[in-house]
Write a structure and sequence with these properties.
The complex is a heterodimer. By secondary structure, chain A is of the alpha+beta class. Chain A has helices at residues 2-8, 26-34, and strands at residues 11-17, 37-45. Chain A has one domain (2-45). By secondary structure, chain B is an alpha/beta fold. Chain B has one domain: Vaccinia Virus protein VP39 (Rossmann fold, 3-Layer(aba) Sandwich), CATH 3.40.50.150. The chains are: A alpha+beta, B alpha/beta.
Chain lengths: 50, 201
Amino acid sequence: MFGLLEDAGFKRVKSAVVPGFRFRQQSTQNSAEAYGVKAVMMTAEKPAEA
Amino acid sequence: MKAEDQASLEAVLKDEIIRMYEEVAEHPEGEFHFFHGRDAAERFGYAPEWLDEAPAGAVASFAGVGNPHERSNLQPGETVLDLGSGAGLDAIVASRFVGPTGRVIGVDLNPSMCIKAQAHAAATGTTMECHEGRMEEIPLPDSTADVVISNGVINLSFRKRKVAEEMYRVLKPGGRISITDIVSAKQLSQSIVNDPKLWAA
């Protein structure tokens, strides 16, 4: 997603992991961790001259 | 994946997404594989007063994965677009920040969720306009919003590149996004991609 935002033209793309996110079921959480699934916060800006 | 296969899968997925999130909205007491409602919102740092002042139905139906308001820096008078606005909690929170001179716009795949979100906003004394539409074809003109927020929705799209392009298009020059979403470090298996229930999760 980070790269897609940059490709779209966004600048100052930043991301951080959302603390505290997890799936309710442990089995789902385990599968998610196996795939490196996590919740992230992303911010980005459209240039003023765009 | 062939284009026609993807289109077919997208159609099935749309139905599954509508079904799942309607289920959350209509039966928030149910057990889902994700945390939802007030517990989830508090876990992500939503202020208690935001939740106390919002209609119970909007809070109970919350199914976000984070807190896009944490870094949105919304200012009075700004126009904010909530992409995938659901039952309206994030739009209602946004309206607190942009105030009566601001404008809050929701876009949701499900027209009944738009009606619900607008009713929830009205119950708080705020106005929210909601448009039925896809995030890959946002039904708004170019340069409409100062800020786009979104919470746990973009991951549901098969065409995330198009979503990013659409967010860019509808933002005013100098505008910004603040989104929270699910990402995967590894390519999901085809069995997951082809299963609408798993993808909609």
